[in-house]
Structures are given as C-alpha cells and as structure tokens.
Amino acid sequence: MARFKRILLKLSGESLMGEKKYGIDEKRLGEYAQQIKEIHEMGVQIGIVIGGGNIFRGLSGAGKGFDRVKGDQMGMLATVINSLGLSSALVAAGVKARVLTAIRMEPIGEFYTKWKAIEAMENGEVVIMSAGTGNPFFTTDTGSSLRGIEIEADVMLKGTRVDGIYTADPEKDPTATKFDEITYDEVLARGLKVMDLTATCMCKENSLPIIVFDMDTVGNLKKVMSGENIGTLVHN
Questions:
Q1: Residue 57 has pLDDT above 80, yes or no
Q2: Could you tell me the pTM of the whole model?
Q3: Do 17 and 28 form a contact (C-beta atoms < 8 A)?
Q4: Cβ contacts of residue 195 below 8 Å, gap of 6+?
Q5: Are the C-beta atoms of residues 70 and 137 closer than 8 Å to each other?
Q6: Could you give the CA distance from residue 235 to residue 171 in angstroms, rounded to a whole number?
Q7: How far apart (Å, rounded) are the C-alpha atoms in residues 91 and 22?
Q8: Looking at the predicted structure, is the pLDDT value of residue 1 above 90?
Q9: 37: closest CA among 9, 13, 57, 64?
Q10: Cα-based distances in Å from 162 to 35, 61, 171, 213
Q11: What is the radius of gyration, based on Cα positions, of the chain?
Q12: Count of Cβ atoms closer than 10 Å to residue 143 Cβ
C-alpha cells in the first residue's frame, strides 16, 4: 500500500545532468522514469514539477547581465524542455504522461488548469506541470508549492542530491547532522535552505508537508512511498 494517494514530486533540473556538465543525461532520465513507474504501479496519482538549472537559471543569468524578466522566462522554457524529456522517457517506459504549461504554447503542451491536471491524474496519467508559475521572480520551488496546493496533493516529495535536511550543508560541513523530521517554524528560525522563503511559507500556510530525500539513489522513491523512514519530513 502506498503511503500517500496523490503526490507532487519536485525534481531538480541540475540532477538531470547526471554525469554530464550540462543538459540531460539519458541514463539519469531513464532511472527517474523507472522510479516514477514503480510508484505509478502502486496506484499513486502523480504530479511533477521539474527545475531547469541544467539548461538555464534565470537568477544566475541576471548576474551575468541578462534582464531578470527575460532570464526567468528563459528558465521557464528550460523547464519545458526537461518536462518534454521526462514525458518522453515515461511514455517509453509504458506510463501515460501529459505535459501542461503555465504559458500557452500549444502544441508543445496543454495550458495548465487545476481541473485538467486533477482529471488527468485520476485517469491514471502522470502530469508534468512546466514553465513554473508562468511569472518571473518565482522559482520552480514556489511553482511546485503552488501546484502541490492547487492539485490538493497529500505531500510534496522533493527529490534532491542529498538524503534529507541537515543542520548545515553536508557537502561543506562534515559535522552537519541530519533531521528525521522538522517543523516549518524551525526551518524558518534556523534559516535552513530547504526551499526559497516564498515556497516554504506557502507550504506552511497551507499545511502541505514536504519530504526531502535523495532521488538519485535508485529505489528511494518507492521506499518513501512504502513508508520507509528515509529523508526528512517537514510539517507544521
């Protein structure tokens, strides 16, 4: 039995690079598709938001002279490219998938509405919601919080390169210790960079719990959905 009926899975664009320095690693993409297929077969309704950092990140572009609004729009398009790639990998694995976009760009993807997304999930399709919120100055973390709340997900699963939330960055500080669970208030008080502030506050205000876990270890997604105690749970 799956632990949750409907989830919002947030995937890192940078993780899609795998062993590469840029773009999409086909091996990593295939692994993600297989992991998603495993939980789809458990009867879970799946909505996905994926970042675009493997192709272009608006904020870093702004630091290099790009207009911030245009930079963010380029980042939104990067998420669409990743969404199409993941959709293609899922279909190849035998899973029905649909790409919805926050900006009109038919025939690349259908224009997002909450009801279209929920209907597709209830019909057994994996729904990939791309182009962020459709607005500049909002990250894909905020986009995933917004979509998770809109589609009435039971939880947001934030797949990252690390296996949870630590007192400090474990890649920089060897003394950092991991939390099994933590409240939103403590995340905010400690200034932990789980997600950006807007996204964290949205999840807190709407009581959407988050599980932060290592998606790059094959099999972890199914472990989370089966109720194994991996990653870190953030809740009110």
A1: no
A2: 0.95
A3: yes
A4: 139, 141, 142, 145, 158, 203, 210
A5: no
A6: 25
A7: 24
A8: no
A9: 9
A10: 17, 25, 9, 7
A11: 17
A12: 25
